[in-house]
């Protein structure tokens, strides 16, 4: 075979579109671009606009043979598809190239890209693009899981403002309707401090504790159920706030580990700190709410014991604001009691607060660092709601307080409110005996 000199082939050499070196046009590619053998291994064809790009600037979708240039906050590539348009399937059509792309929008590859993108990618708070499996939602915005707590702390969003009210997430779903169809959804606010009661401390202690607790929530899959809010009434502390969930759902949460972590981080409760439990307003009918309030007005001493508070330290959850429920309900006609909710309070500092729009707030409980007391408080509210469903308004209004408390004890035993029963036994609010393997009130 006759040898060919470099001078003979020199005129055929072209510049590699990748590295810029001269090479023979053995890999002639689209639109006059050509790559040498070495560079060809590191490029891929964008399935959106049919152009070649370095693989380092692209996303390889988990569909065989499909590559797309890495989206940036504005466009995947110039004159191509924006991330918003990629979600909706619409394309730029104000350029010749855009019109050509629009004609091919039913192409099978593109359909797969769109579906894969919708299912697997999302936009972050800083308008970058990331896989959903690497993303976490906090305060209504998306962030990368890695380093979330530090990023929120840098943005001063680790502990949200007191006015912050995210759309409620019921149970484990993203259902956002406020109608609960008679189900008692419980959401709680636990006030905690990072220092002793009269110790001013500093902001760093509070944020260190909040950051550590958020990391625990992320590790245990509870970051979408619990968040933190500022509260000026707490010295060097904050509120730990939950989304609503049924009592049966809360029983599945490892509260012991949660409270152990709080104590490990140096969080504590003071006499001025409270535990407020919200229950969905439409868990009961109007007459059932009257029945519940009449019951509470007849057993105030029992209520104080259940609250774990001293009688003289209830200025933020005053019983007297609700104590006239019996006389008020008696003044209503039979028709009115079925159609009128118990009145809103002049201020929210009542043991039972009817001021919120979608919930009724039980403010009577003292804050706690005990998971047993937490469960006892949640079960108290759930038991009161279910008790008001079981017993009629007439029975509760006419019965003596001793008979009503006996009814309530039996209701708790019959419905298996173990945490509440254990707490009432400890506080001598209930006495049980076992007959034929069953616990009965005595």
Report a brief summary of the structure.
With 442 residues, this protein is α+β, with helices and mostly antiparallel strands.
Can you walk me through this structure?
By secondary structure, this protein is of the alpha+beta class. It folds into three domains: 39 residues, no CATH class; 82 residues, no CATH class; 257 residues, Creatine Kinase, Chain A, domain 2, CATH 3.30.590. It has 17 helices and 19 strands. The strands form seven sheets. Strands 11, 12, 13, 14, 15, 16 and 17 form a seven-stranded antiparallel beta sheet that branches. A hairpin with a 7-residue loop joins strand 12 and strand 13. Helix 6 packs antiparallel against helix 7, helix 10 crosses helix 14 and helix 14 packs across helix 17. The chain is elongated. The termini are far apart.
């Amino acid at each position: 075979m006759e040898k060919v000199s470099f001078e003979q082939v020199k005129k055929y050499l072209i510049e590699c579109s990748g590295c810029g070196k001269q090479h023979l046009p053995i890999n002639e590619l689209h639109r006059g671009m050509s790559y040498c053998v070495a560079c060809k291994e590191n490029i891929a064809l964008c399935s959106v606009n049919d152009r070649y790009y370095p693989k380092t600037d692209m996303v390889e979708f988990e569909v065989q043979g499909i590559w797309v240039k890495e989206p940036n906050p504005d466009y995947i590539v110039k004159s191509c598809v924006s991330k918003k348009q990629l979600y909706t399937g619409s394309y730029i059509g104000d350029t010749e190239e855009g019109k050509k792309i629009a004609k091919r929008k039913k192409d099978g590859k593109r359909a797969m890209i769109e579906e894969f993108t919708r299912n697997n990618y999302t936009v972050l708070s800083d308008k970058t693009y990331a896989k959903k499996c690497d993303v976490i939602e906090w305060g209504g915005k998306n962030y990368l899981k890695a380093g979330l707590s530090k990023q929120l702390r840098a943005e001063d969003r680790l502990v949200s403002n007191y006015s912050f009210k995210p759309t409620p997430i019921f149970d484990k779903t993203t259902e956002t309707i406020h109608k609960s169809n008679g189900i008692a959804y419980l959401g709680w606010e636990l006030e905690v401090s990072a220092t002793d009661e009269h110790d001013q401390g500093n902001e760093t202690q509070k944020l260190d504790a909040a950051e550590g607790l958020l990391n625990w929530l992320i590790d245990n899959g509870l970051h979408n159920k619990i968040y933190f809010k500022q509260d000026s009434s707490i010295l060097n502390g904050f509120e730990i706030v939950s989304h609503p969930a049924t009592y049966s759902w809360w029983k599945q949460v490892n509260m012991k580990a949660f409270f152990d972590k709080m104590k490990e981080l140096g969080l504590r409760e003071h006499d001025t700190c409270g535990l407020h439990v919200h229950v969905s307003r439409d868990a009961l009918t109007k007459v059932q709410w009257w029945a519940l309030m009449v019951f509470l007005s007849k057993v105030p001493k029992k209520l104080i014991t259940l609250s774990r508070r001293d009688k003289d330290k209830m200025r933020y959850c005053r019983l007297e604001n609700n104590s006239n429920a019996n006389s008020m309900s008696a003044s209503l006609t039979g028709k009115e009691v079925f159609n009128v909710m118990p009145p809103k309070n002049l201020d929210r500092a009542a043991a039972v607060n009817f001021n919120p729009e979608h919930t009724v707030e039980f403010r009577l409980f003292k804050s706690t660092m005990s998971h047993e007391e937490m469960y006892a408080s949640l079960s108290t509210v759930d038991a009161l709601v279910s008790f008001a469903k079981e017993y009629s308004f007439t029975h509760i209004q006419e019965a003596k307080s001793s008979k009503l408390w006996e009814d309530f004890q039996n209701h708790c035993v019959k419905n298996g409110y173990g945490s509440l029963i254990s707490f009432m036994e400890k506080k001598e609010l209930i006495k049980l005996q076992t007959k034929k393997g069953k616990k009965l009130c005595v």
